[in-house]
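Listing S7. Sequence submitted for prediction.
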Amino acid sequence: MLLTNRRHRVLYLALAAMEVGWLAPFVVLIARYWWQRLDVALLRARGLDEVATTLAQVQTMPPAALFLLLLGTLIFYMLVADLLNQWQVDSPQRELIMAGVVLATSLLSVRLLLYPRLAPWDLRWLGETGSAVFNFTAGRRPEVLVLLLNGFLWWRVAANTDRDLSFFAVGVNFRLGLLLSVVANAMLVGTGRATVTEAFIFFALFMFAGLTAVSVARIDEKALLTEHSRGAVLPWLQVAQVTAVAAVTLLLGGLLALIFRPATIMRVLGWFSPLWELLGTVSGWLIYGLAWLLAPLMNAAVRFLQWVMSQVEPMETPQQEQAFGDIVVVRPTDITTLLDRHDNVRYALVALMILGALALIWLFFVRTRRRMLVNEEEAWAQERVTFGGGLLGRGAERLRDLWDLVRRYGLGTQLLAAISIQNIYANTCRLARLRGVPRPKALPPDLFLPALQAAFPGCGDELAHITEAYMRGEYGDQALDTIELERLRADYRHVRATPPPEVPPEIPAASTDDGHGAEVGA
């Protein structure tokens, strides 16, 4: 995201700010609702007056400060996820490290946010956090709120690793975030938990981040797809220009909102009051005339229905005595009472919820791991005997790859076409390696194309077609039709039948300047 893809770095930051823009009002709403139902007496009995005071300070934090706090936390988690992906740790160590990082950051947030004045060696906060989680029926505790918020932030980080960054997808996310922002700020003002000024600041921050994200996505898409564009990365000066334009747009919108107030609008509409009276009179006469024309028809329909009902014989109900037994009143058991009585059930429920949250985050990270890893150079080497261990690992990785294709293309001809083009490109790279042209580490397919053309003389068009189709399927999720797939197979047969060059071609060097270098697979 931020470290592995320089082209989309600004876009990821803008999308993160956009998500925080609609999340912050919900955080304020839930925090103030939580504060109203907080058992302060329980906290004082446990000597945790400082925790209640800290939560009161957090829920009264200025909107801009809360926005920056959440945005900084989300960006930090994104950097941690990038570093974890760059280490290329194999399973299951990677999953264990990821679970440890999620738990460690969540506990660290509780320590820094709710217990900032405790001494570093005072671990009383760990016991209080565990008591708040496992004894949640005793009363609401702020530690649970902080842990839930951290879990949600980590879920958003995991979802961002597989986010579609096209202009259409970013626009859809902006519209969805706009709806959430309007609902959250309206609930804040409607419930009296925030002023109109605070809600307006939250909405303005969301709009600024959303306009920046949509603009950057559109510019990036034009740079990649326009015919005569070089596809260069957006310079920082133009990034500053885009953010300035977004800020000016919001400023003009605010000025127009100051001018077109409800009183001003009603005054302007009042100028046309004679017209509204005339239209109302004409509309009333039209409705009256229409009713006068339809009255005979409606009266005839009523008389017909009365005649039909008069022809129906009344139904006779059997007069039978029904014996009733004693009525037993079953009192429902409250779930809170049940959990209070059975500690093991409560502990098992909390453990199941924690495992479910970690499994959800793990699922988002694992399904995108293949896209986040850098391709390793293919080389001949002897493998030691593992008695099936390596075979099982490769089989599991292949199943994950197939599941990723099924998720993107579904079950059908498009899935078979995607698997075929991957096999065609992999076999082409394997033939090139046998001719002394291995694919270097982190080299995108389009930069490796000249080396392929040198390894197979006279097949420039065929190799360009194969590379372009592979990149469409790998990066653009664009399926191939049957005619194009047959053409690709014919191109591959022609490439395979081409004799090797007389002079061995040069091996291209790896390049990290391009934006797609971090996610390439053959």
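Caption to Listing S7: primary sequence and predicted structure tokens for the chain studied. Residues 49 and 109 are 18 Å apart (CA to CA). Residues 370-390, 511-522 have pLDDT under 50 and may be disordered.
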